[in-house]
Write a structure and sequence with these properties.
The protein is α/β, with parallel strands linked by helices. The protein has two domains: 59 residues, Signal recognition particle alu RNA binding heterodimer, srp9/1; 66 residues, 2,3-Dihydroxybiphenyl 1,2-Dioxygenase, domain 1 (Roll), CATH 3.10.180. The protein is built from two helices and eight strands. A four-stranded mixed β-sheet has the order 1-4-3-2, with helices on one face. Strands 5-8-7-6 form a four-stranded mixed β-sheet, with helices on one face. β2 and β3 form a beta hairpin. The termini are far apart.
Length: 127
């Protein structure tokens, strides 16, 4: 954004039933830190300058389904994380609280679900 002000932070806001728990999951998964946490909002950051993930409490939260299904809550977005070793990255994510999705559409990508049910992908770059 050309009109970005100095000190203006950039991030993605994600709805969650428990913002703090989801922030701690992603902080552990990515080796980032929780920069703010209260009952309604938690923020995870790679560094003081960002990028940031902001988790916001959503009343009546309905986790998305994977793969998408008619009449069910669809994921509106998902994270893709590039990894050097797919099997090790999946094992680390599962140890942190993720679950491996049943449907896996590609050999070099693993779809997982975070503790709130959001899908995210671990992607192995073969090149």
């Amino acid at each position: 954004m050309k009109s970005r002000a100095d000190g203006m932070w950039w991030g993605t806001a994600i709805e969650a039933p428990d913002p703090g728990a989801l922030a701690r999951f992603y902080a552990e998964l990515l080796d980032w830190h929780v920069g703010h946490e209260d009952p309604e909002t938690a923020v995870v950051a790679a560094s003081p300058q960002g990028p940031y993930f902001v988790f916001q409490r959503a009343e009546g939260y309905q986790p998305p389904v994977w793969p998408p299904a008619d009449g069910r809550q669809r994921a509106m977005m998902h994270f893709d994380f590039q990894v050097a070793d797919l099997d090790s990255a999946v094992a680390e994510a599962v140890a942190s609280g993720a679950t491996v999705a049943e449907f896996q559409p590609q050999d070099h990508v693993r779809v997982l679900l975070d503790p709130a049910g959001h899908p995210f992908c671990l992607c192995f770059d073969e090149g």
